[in-house]
Amino acid sequence: MSSIVNNLSIDHIDEISNIWIESIPYNIKSIIGKKIVKNYVEKFLKSERTLGTGLFNSNQLIGFVFFGNDTKIISRVLKDNLINIILSFFLYLIQFKFRKILNYFDVMIYLILSNLKKKKYKNSTELLIVAIKIDHQNKGLGTHLLKESFEKNKSYFNKFENLTVITLKSTPENIKFYEKNNFKVFDELYGRVYLSLNLPI
């Protein structure tokens, strides 16, 4: 396989944001807009407690995966972009884009419920997002990206006992992808499926 996996830097913000928006349009950050995606990616890549790896083909980024805890990052992104988030909501309301409006409420309700449940995962890290460019999907590149990320960053993953991921129940293809990569379902909450992978791999 000619594709190689390397750790990402802030030089890749634009490429990551483009792939994010294109490949996961139903993601709440994609719905709000590119500005918030770029803001999140920048803060993520500047954080010392996170790990971002990219899949490159002829020096072109074709996919990426983010690992870590982004709770503080999201708090800062919300604080920096609150007006933009509110404006985007009202813009969709004026345009009668009810599906996108429902996404806002769906995420809000989920966040409230997940805070009430307050799941704690002992000594774990999270797979936050994995995305492959649309014209490169269904070629096994997501699995290749995960395996190489684990292999190249053992010092990061060896610090944890497990890796968790949350995906939408309405995307069975995502659940199958994680199960194919040895993740196991251990819980569900408000249309989200929780999976876990034992570490070290």
What does this structure look like?
With 201 residues, this protein is α+β, with helices and mostly antiparallel strands. Helix content is 49%, strand content 24%. It has eight helices and seven strands; from the N terminus they run βαααββααβααβαββ. The protein has helices at residues 13-23, 28-32, 34-46, 71-94, 98-117, 141-152, 154-157, 172-180, and strands at 4-7, 51-57, 60-67, 124-132, 162-168, 184-189, 192-198. A seven-stranded mixed β-sheet has the order 1-2-3-4-5-7-6. Helix 3 packs antiparallel against helix 4 (71-94). The two termini are 22 Å apart. The mean pLDDT is 94.
Distance between the termini: 22 Å
**Percent range of helical residues:** 40-55%
Order of helices and strands: EHHHEEHHEHHEHEE
Largest sheet: 7 strands, mixed
Q: What proportion strand?
A: 15-25%
How many individual helices?
8
User: What form results from the Cα inertia axes?
Assistant: globular
Gyration radius, rounded: 17 Å
Mean pLDDT over the residues: 94
The residue ranges in which pLDDT falls below 50 over 5 or more consecutive positions are none
Number of DSSP strands? 7
